[in-house]
């Protein structure tokens, strides 16, 4: 049996009540530091942040170590690529104390409620006539179609996630590595106190609950997180337009800006066409 060294001291502080005991990490880390929330809750650091962009393949090695380390890796992007503070991560604009627990939420109920909110026609503020407004979510209109069925998983979720990590590093030159003490990637969003979807929900645990359900149904993995963006790998994407339309409805409920402010035409049907066979899902909240 190979003996692995314990967690580095600057990473051990991510675990409370001595939970780091017995955890190991054989992968060398680049220079970095633990980040404390600027809300001053006194609970200690919420994540570890590298000082520079990680090398290709490091995310995958850390992901493979998650079972021993209890640390989920994230590729983090700043609000502004030239921001020396690397907001929100380096500036500590992270608020875990204000979050509930992901396990306390029903993903199906959350999505149904958000769908109802986003398909309600508010004639006093809506810029579109009611008929055009409801045409955006055709063929469903205001009728919530329910959760999309689980898809057949023909790909290894971890391998697909590793590939997306390398793709993100190739596209974005100033990503940094984050490590969060979380049981899985979906939980890491809440544990870190990320508030990117603040204009959609002020409780990131709700976002984590839905993503956790996608982890189960579609082999999703959390890979990249920005100021208000989220990049997920998908091992079991929809393979037909019918399947994709049901998934698109969930995406609209989860992040309506993906459709409202996405590529034209800004309709659920057009958005669904882009989901067929797509192994990554990206979200952006205005």
UniProtKB/TrEMBL annotation:
Name by which UniProt lists this protein: DUF4253 domain-containing protein
Residue ranges of domain DUF4253 in the record:
176-286
Pfam family example for this protein? DUF4253
Q: Give the matching InterPro entries.
A: DUF4253
């Amino acid at each position: 049996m190979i003996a692995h060294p314990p967690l580095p001291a600057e990473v051990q502080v991510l675990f409370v009540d001595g939970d780091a005991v017995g955890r190991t990490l054989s992968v060398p880390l680049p220079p970095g530091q633990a980040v404390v929330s600027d809300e001053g809750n006194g609970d200690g650091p919420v994540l570890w942040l590298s000082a520079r962009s990680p090398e290709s393949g490091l995310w995958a090695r850390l992901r493979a170590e998650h079972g021993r380390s209890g640390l989920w890796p994230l590729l983090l992007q700043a609000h502004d690529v030239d921001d020396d503070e690397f907001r929100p991560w380096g500036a500590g604009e992270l608020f875990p104390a204000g979050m509930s627990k992901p396990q306390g939420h029903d993903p199906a109920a959350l999505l149904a409620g958000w769908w109802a909110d986003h398909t309600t026609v508010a004639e006093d503020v809506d810029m579109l006539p009611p008929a055009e407004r409801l045409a955006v979510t055709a063929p469903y209109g205001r009728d919530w179609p329910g959760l999309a069925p689980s898809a057949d998983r023909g790909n290894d979720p971890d391998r697909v996630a590793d590939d997306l990590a390398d793709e993100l590093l190739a596209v974005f030159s100033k990503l940094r590595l984050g490590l969060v003490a979380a049981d899985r990637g979906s939980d890491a969003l809440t544990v870190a106190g990320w508030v990117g979807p603040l204009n959609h929900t002020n409780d990131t645990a709700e976002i984590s609950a839905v993503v956790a359900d996608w982890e189960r149904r579609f082999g999703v993995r959390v890979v990249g997180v920005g100021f208000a963006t989220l990049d997920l790998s998908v091992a079991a994407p929809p393979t037909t337009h019918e399947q994709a339309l049901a998934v698109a409805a969930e995406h609209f409920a989860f992040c309506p800006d993906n459709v409202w402010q996405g590529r034209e035409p800004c309709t659920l049907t057009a958005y669904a066409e882009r989901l067929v066979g797509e192994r990554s899902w990206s979200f952006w909240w205005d």
